[in-house]
Every structure is written in C-alpha cells, then in structure tokens.
Amino acid sequence: MEKLKILVNYLKKRKKTIAVAESMSGGYLSYLLTKIPGSSKFFKLGVVAYSLQAKHKLFNIPYTILNPTQGVSEKIAKILSKKVKSMLGTDLGASIVGFAGPKAKKGMRGVVYLGLTKGIKTVTKRKKVSGSREEIRRKASYALIEFILNNLE
Prior knowledge:
The protein is of the alpha/beta class. Helices cover 42% and strands 22% of the residues. A 5-stranded mixed beta sheet has the order 2-1-3-4-5, with helices on both faces. 39% of the residues are buried.
C-alpha cells in the first residue's frame, strides 16, 4: 500500500497522467488507483483486455502474435503499454499480462509480464509470483506499481 501512495504522490505532484491495460489482473490495478480520492486527476483510462479477442480487437494485436503464447509475453506487455498510453495521450502507459489460474501450463502459473511506456521509451519485466489465483492477481498488481516506481526518472 505504501508504494501505491508513493506512485500517487508522484503523479499528483508532477501533474502526470497514467493509463493502464490489464489482462490477468482483471482491473485490480485500476481498482487500486481509483480508490484514491481525486484519482481522476491522474488516472485517465483502465482497460481490461482479458481475452485474445479483446487484445486483438482493442489493441490490434495480430493473432499470429497472440496465439503462440496465449496472449502472455513480453512483446504483448510492450504493445499494450504503448497502445494504452496513445489512446488518450497520457504521460505513462502501463500493462500487465500473465497466468493466474490453475489451468496454466506447468511452471507458468504466476508468470507475469509488466510493461511501462514513458515518452517514447518502453520497458518490460518478467516476474513470477505465487499463491492462490486472487493472491497472484494482487501480487502482480503491486509488482506493476513497484516496476513503475523503479522506472520513473
């Protein structure tokens, strides 16, 4: 929770805006950001593109990129963060994709890819978290907050 406050303070003080594209987190990061009073000043867009079809239709990602990885890869996190940022011209675009459920391929449960676009620079990170489906969603969302903070200025 402390890191969330640090991120919010950063955005407010510098009058920066953020847009988020989420998949496996199901909007958890958007939920965390919108719990903050006055969040409309910095939080401009949250998109949950859960299915391959949503990623294809909303973000124009070809199925040739989506299908081989079930929509979960560093490349997809990168595309999502870039495109969600461009939708409203925010200062930051962040993304999260991963596997939270029990039906993930062996060794892939808890694997998440985080993306952040700031200006014209995009960075990504692969991370592994553990726990129940809900714990993975929560931990992954907080991992994205930490990732954003680590890549600011």
